């Protein structure tokens, strides 16, 4: 992981591979002119106030994420200045937003792969800004190279360049308790989020329900989290028909993993439930060609829940947080569940399986009912659940459904605060009828149109009465198949981790609506 430190030293005297400054597009009468952002005054002065003009001659525009490199001015111990675009200058002299800072720091960290140390002379007005920059840098420096010839078992390099090793934030106050807390929080959250990314990126021949559970167990011991693993025998004894039905076709048996973080000062209890399909072939309802290659990412919800619970423990939040990971591998075989089969779920309800590729809702249903037995104050499930949600919201936004409008609004607000894009989605009652079954209590499929909403309605059937619940469908943003941007890499993204952590923080503070 990238080491994060604070400094009030002069930029010219710090030994580093690069000094990072921010530039932006001018506003108002200077619209289109390049503006050097706050934090870089000393660097600009060393160029005799001509840094913006020099960068313009090099083609810099200040566009978000744009990176321009130039030799450092005379007298600096760092040889290179890296200018990163922040987008438009805020209006009315407002400070730059936290997400703009995260993305700028992330873009700079990616551009400096191979460097040992970078100094960020980017805008910092308070500890929150320092935390945002630290988050962006640590997430942007991420690389998954465990399977490269010169990866973690060799040089630790990615394409010949190791991730940026150290970042110093100029303008942060290293002895100020609030600033130190912001960096500590950023470190805990980004380390766990990057752990989630690692799990999502791990190939399915190495990550199955059993090995995933082993990773969780080891982390629980390290961070004082109680972990309970239900294997096939325990699942059969308990009547977890949904999880068993999905995992029936694989030689790798399913698991239900419970993580319990408790605080002696907690007055509230949150339950997070994650879909953990370590590989999704579609089962007997086999996915078409071209849809299988990224299905190792179908456990992203479970990875997010795991990361969020560990982060809550590391932060010592005064809230009880329970994580439920519903783990299975969905494979076709002679023992696999067939379309037309009826499963008796943990809740006692029966489900007619019309499509074995609608498997995520089956494992989640068992986990949701199990989580409901503890009567938490709220349950939030996270899942790469439907392609329909990707069609509706694209690749960067997750949908939020809930049985309480105010709770749904609070989740969307929390996601925006931490820089994750989400959108409130309805649960139209008229779509429920499409899941009526002549054979069972409910079918796992309904109307094709509005499929993401149908899936949400199915899950709602398995939430205990009177419990506030929300469903996050992260099918779009969980896995980035295009090029990296900001602090988001190609591959696993760790979507929803920061939202879940923020919800836990708000609950601990008594501020979650």
What distinguishing features does this structure have?
elongated, alpha/beta, 14 helices, 20 strands, about 525 residues
Mean pLDDT: 95
Strand content: 15-25%
Summed up, the helix count is 14
Major sheet details: 8 strands, mixed
Strand order of the largest sheet: 8-9-11-10-14-18-15-16
Structural class estimated from helices and strands: alpha/beta
- N- and C-termini, Cα separation: 35 Å
What fraction, in percent, of the residue positions are helical? 25-40%
Radius of gyration: 24 Å
Net shape: elongated
Low-confidence stretches: none
The total beta strand count reads 20
In short:
The chain is α/β, with parallel strands linked by helices and 513 residues long.
Helices and strands in order, then pairings?
Elements lengths: L2 E5 L10 E8 L8 E3 L4 H6 L4 H7 L9 E5 L8 E9 L9 H14 L5 E5 L5 H14 L25 E5 L6 H25 L7 H15 L2 E5 L1 H7 L2 H7 L7 E7 L7 E12 L19 H16 L4 E11 L11 E3 L5 E3 L7 H13 L5 E6 L3 H7 L4 E5 L2 H14 L3 E3 L17 E2 L7 H10 L7 E6 L5 E2 L10 E2 L4 H13 L4
Parallel strand pairs: 1-7, 2-5, 2-6, 6-7, 10-11, 10-14, 13-17, 14-18, 15-16
Antiparallel strand pairs: 2-3, 4-5, 8-9, 9-11, 12-13, 15-18, 19-20
Helix pairs in contact: 3-4, 4-5, 5-9, 6-9, 8-10, 9-14, 12-14
């Amino acid at each position: 992981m990238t080491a994060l430190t604070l400094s009030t030293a002069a930029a010219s005297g710090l030994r580093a591979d690069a000094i990072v400054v921010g530039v932006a597009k001018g506003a108002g009468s200077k619209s289109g002119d390049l503006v050097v952002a706050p934090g870089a005054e000393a660097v600009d002065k060393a160029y005799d106030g001509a840094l913006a003009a020099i960068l313009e001659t090099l083609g810099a525009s200040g566009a978000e994420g744009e990176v321009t490199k130039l030799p450092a001015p005379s007298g600096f111990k760092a040889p290179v200045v890296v200018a990163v675009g922040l987008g438009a200058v805020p209006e009315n002299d407002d400070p730059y937003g936290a997400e703009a800072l995260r993305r700028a720091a992330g873009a700079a960290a990616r551009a400096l792969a191979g460097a040992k140390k970078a100094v960020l002379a980017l805008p910092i007005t308070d500890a929150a800004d320092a935390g945002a920059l630290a988050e962006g840098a640590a997430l942007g420096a991420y690389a998954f190279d465990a399977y490269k010839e010169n990866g973690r078992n060799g040089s630790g390099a990615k394409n010949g360049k190791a991730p940026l090793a150290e970042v110093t934030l100029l303008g942060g106050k290293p002895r100020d308790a609030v600033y130190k807390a912001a960096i500590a929080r950023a470190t805990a959250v980004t380390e766990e989020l990057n752990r989630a990314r690692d799990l999502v990126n791990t190939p399915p021949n190495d990550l199955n329900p059993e090995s995933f559970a082993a990773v969780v167990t080891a982390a629980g011991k390290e961070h004082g989290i109680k972990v309970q693993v239900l294997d096939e025998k325990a699942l059969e004894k308990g009547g977890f028909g949904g999880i068993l039905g999905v995992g029936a076709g694989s030689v790798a048996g399913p698991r239900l993993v419970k993580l319990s973080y408790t605080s002696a000062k907690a007055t509230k209890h949150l339950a997070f439930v994650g879909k953990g399909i370590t590989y999704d072939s579609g089962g007997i309802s086999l996915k078409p060609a071209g849809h299988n290659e990224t299905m190792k990412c179908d456990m992203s919800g479970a990875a997010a829940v795991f990361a969020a619970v560990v982060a809550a423990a590391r932060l010592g939040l005064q809230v009880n947080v329970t994580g439920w990971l519903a783990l299975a591998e969905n494979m076709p075989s002679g023992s696999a569940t067939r379309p037309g089969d009826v499963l008796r779920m943990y809740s006692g309800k029966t489900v007619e399986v019309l499509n074995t590729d609608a498997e995520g809702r089956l494992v989640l249903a068992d986990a949701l009912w199990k989580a409901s037995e503890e009567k938490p104050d709220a349950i939030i499930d996270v899942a790469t659940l439907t392609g329909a949600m990707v069609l509706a919201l694209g690749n960067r936004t997750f949908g939020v459904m809930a049985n309480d409008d105010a709770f749904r609004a609070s989740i969307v607000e929390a996601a925006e605060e931490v820089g994750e894009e989400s959108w409130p989605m309805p649960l139209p009652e008229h779509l429920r009828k499409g899941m009526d079954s002549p054979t069972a209590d409910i079918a796992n499929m309904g109307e094709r149109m509005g499929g993401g909403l149908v899936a949400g309605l199915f899950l709602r059937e398995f939430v205990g009465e009177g419990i506030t619940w929300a469903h996050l469908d992260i099918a779009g943003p969980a896995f980035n198949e295009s090029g990296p941007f900001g602090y988001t890499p190609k591959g696993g993204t760790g979507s929803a981790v920061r939202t879940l952590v923020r919800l836990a923080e708000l609950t601990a503070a008594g501020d979650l609506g």
